[in-house]
Amino acid sequence: MTAVTARARRPASRPRHLLSSADLGPDGQERVLALAAALRRGRHAGRAPGHGLEGRMVAMLFEKPSLRTRVTFDAGITALGGHAIYLGPDEVGIGRRETATDVARNLVRWVDAIVFRTFAHTTLVELAEASSVPVINALSDLEHPCQALADMLTLAGRLGSLRGRRLAFIGDGNNVCHSLLLAGSNAGLRLSVATPPGYEPSPIVVRDALELARRSGGSVEIGTDPRAAVAGADAVYTDTWTSMGAEAEADLRRIRFAGYRVDAALLAGAPDALVMHCLPAHRGEEISDEALDGPTSVVLDQAENRLYVQQALLLDLLEAS
Ligand code: CP
Ligand code: NVA
Questions:
Q1: Which of 160, 189, 289, 304 is the most buried (most CB within 10 A)?
Q2: CA atoms within 13 A on the CB side of 290
Q3: Tally of domains within the chain
Q4: Which domain holds residue 214?
């Protein structure tokens, strides 16, 4: 009954699930980021965040390891009066013990939202299609939208308005890159991506990001030259060369990505640029110690901001704010 009422009141920009950074749209993204910024201000001022998730149960289904995502969801939900139930890689056995559809059909009988970290994005879509409660992508092989929201909050905290600001992403055209392209284009960023040949972001994601950028006044450039991408950037972002699930390719990737390390030499092209990384970092591979720990690094702000954007997202999706 509650869910039906909530759906009837849902504005056009409020999606049912957050599977992709494109799902919120520019207005929804701005709304969630504004609420997240208020939650951050409140916590920094020592104020309690209220009980917007009082009595709400959230299942956190993780098929891969996590530090930031798990802790920030759990802590954020608890702080708002809700309860998080963690189900780790060995517990549910999606696709082995039960299908994603059957897992969703059971979970919705007990919980108000599902946070899901998985391998194939198609598994996430299958679970979401069978779920009558909001499903949040906590990372799939295609996207990492919670991370991109935290990244937008971090950039806005440091740079103010994001419109026309330049963000360079160097490395693998992976899930983090995809969500940055979409969330950044929603926000009007000018995005330059440099990957080794063969590791470009998905052409479908790039097409969608270009369309969002056309509407927001942002831009998207995809290339293979890290120096060209970084020149004049306000922020330089990188992520692991080998994502979870691709470990068998790690040695080959170390060779192919060798010219794509974010270090002092590369950052000489944008000396004041903020240095960003979703973490975990592989020091000495995609990023040098000097860059990761340097004075313009905002990686721990990104990690902290996961807390506020996910609280805001849950409040928004559950319309409890
Ligand atoms: N950035 C991020 O999602 O970190 P975890 O894998 O530790 O959750
Ligand atoms: N691209 C990385 C991000 C980890 C937070 C992965 O998928 O493993």
A1: 189
A2: 9
A3: 2
A4: 145-302
Query: Which strand ranges, in their side-by-side order, compose the sheet holding 166-170?
Result: 219-223, 190-194, 166-170, 235-238, 274-277
56 Cβ neighbours under 8 A, 6+ residues apart: 77, 81, 82, 83, 112, 113, 314, 318, 320
Claim: this prediction has a pTM higher than 0.90 = yes
Same domain for 115 and 186, yes or no, is no
**8 in a structural domain:** no
* CA-nearest residue, atom 7 of ligand 2: 243
Residue 321: band (very low, low, confident or very high) from pLDDT cuts 50, 70, 90: very low
The residues carrying an active-site annotation are: 117, 144, 147, 239, 278, 306
Partners of residue 136 on adjacent β-strands: 18, 115
278 lines ligand 1 (CB under 6 A): yes
176 lines ligand 2 (CB under 6 A): yes
Question: Would you state the pLDDT for residue 275?
Answer: 98
CATH at residue 206: 3.40.50.1370
Ligand 1 and 3: CB distance under 6 A? no
Cis bond before residue 280 (omega within 30° of 0): yes
